[in-house]
Amino acid sequence: MGRLTIGPAIMLLSFLTQEWRLLRDGRRKRRSSWAWHGLGVACVLFWIVVLCEMPLWLYFLSFAYLGAALSRLRSYAEHRYADHHEERTAIVENSYLFGLLFLHNNLHVLHHRRYYLSG
């Protein structure tokens, strides 16, 4: 339950802390990326708050935070404990609920195969 409730907050805070350090160290490409991201966020928030008249807190909780929680759930389901790295990727098969979350594919396995074969 913690992965779904406080996991997104921890993930977001650690990501923003890491990005802040990179920005502070003068990474120009990061600044450009964040500027473009900020422009995109402003457009989405204008659409959500002004045109759709949805409160910002509702958008944050029901879309942004819930989406991050689902990504934490997906990450949990796609990994398992194993002694060898190449055995740590799990495949979710034949599940209506999780099949939708995983978009009925197992590209995560291919991602790990490529990583371990190249490294």
Quickly list its features.
119 residues, mainly alpha, 2 domains, 0% strand, globular
Q: What this model shows, in words?
A:
The longest helix is centred in the first third of the chain and has 24 residues, at 28-51. The chain is globular and about 45 Å long. The protein has two domains: 1-78, no CATH class; 82-119, no CATH class. It has helices at 2-5, 7-24, 28-51, 56-78, 96-101, 107-118. Helices cover 73% and strands 0% of the residues. With 119 residues, the chain is mainly α. One of its GO terms (biological process) is lipid metabolic process. Keywords: Membrane, Plasmid, Transmembrane, Transmembrane helix. This is Fatty acid desaturase. Residues 16-114 form the Fatty acid desaturase domain.
Quick overview of this protein structure:
The protein has 119 residues and is mainly alpha-helical.
Ends apart, CA distance between termini: 34 Å
Q: Count up the helices.
A: 6
**Percent strand:** under 5%
Radius of gyration: 18 Å
Mean pLDDT: 82
Residues in helix, %: over 70%
Look at the helices and sheets and give the structural class. mainly alpha
Q: Please describe the biggest sheet, giving its number of strands, its sense, and whether it closes into a barrel.
A: none
Question: Which descriptor suits the 3D outline?
Answer: globular
When the domains are counted, the total is 2
Number of strands: 0
User: What is the chain-wise order of helices and strands?
Assistant: HHHHHH
Low-confidence stretches: none
